[in-house]
Amino acid sequence: MKEKQLHALLNEMTLAEKVGQLVQLTPDFFAQGGEITGPLQEWQMTEEQLFIIGSVLGTHTAQQVYAIQKQYLAKSRLKIPLVFMADVIHGYETIFPIPLALAASFDEKLVEQVAEASAEEAAEAGVHVTFSPMADHVKDARWGRVLESNGEDPTLSSALVSAYVRGYQGDKDLLATNHKRIAACVKHFVGYGAPEAGRDYHTVDLSELELYQNYLPAFHAAIDAGVQLVMTSFNTINGIPVTANKKMIQEVLREKLEFNGLVISDWGAVAELIAHRVAENREAAAEKAFRAGVEMDMMSDCYLNVLEQLIHSTPALEKMLDQAVFHVLQLKNNLGLFEDPYRGLNDQNLSVNLAAKTRRLSREAAEQSVVLLKNDHLLPLKTKQKVALIGPKATSKDLLGAWSWIGKTEAVVSLQEGLSTKDIQLNTLPYPDGEEVTEEYLQKACHLAEACDVVIVAVGETSEEAGEATSLTKLELSRNQEKLIQAVSTLNPNVVTIIFSGRPLVLSAIEPVCKSILVAWFPGSEGGNALANLLMGEKEPQARLPMSFPRAVGQLPYTYAQLSTGRPQTKENQDQKYISRYMDEKNEALFSFGAGIGYGSCILKETALDFDDQTATHTLACTIKNPTSVDHTTILQVYSRDDQTEVARPMRELKKWQKVFLPAGKEQTIRFQFTEHDFAYIHSDLLLKSDVGTISLFVGFDNTSLTFIGKITI
Ligand code: NOJ
Question: What InterPro entries does the entry give (predicted)?
Answer without folding.
Answer: Cellulose_Degrad_GH3, Fn3-like, GH, Glyco_hydro_3_AS, Glyco_hydro_3_C, Glyco_hydro_3_C_sf, Glyco_hydro_3_N, Glyco_hydro_3_N_sf
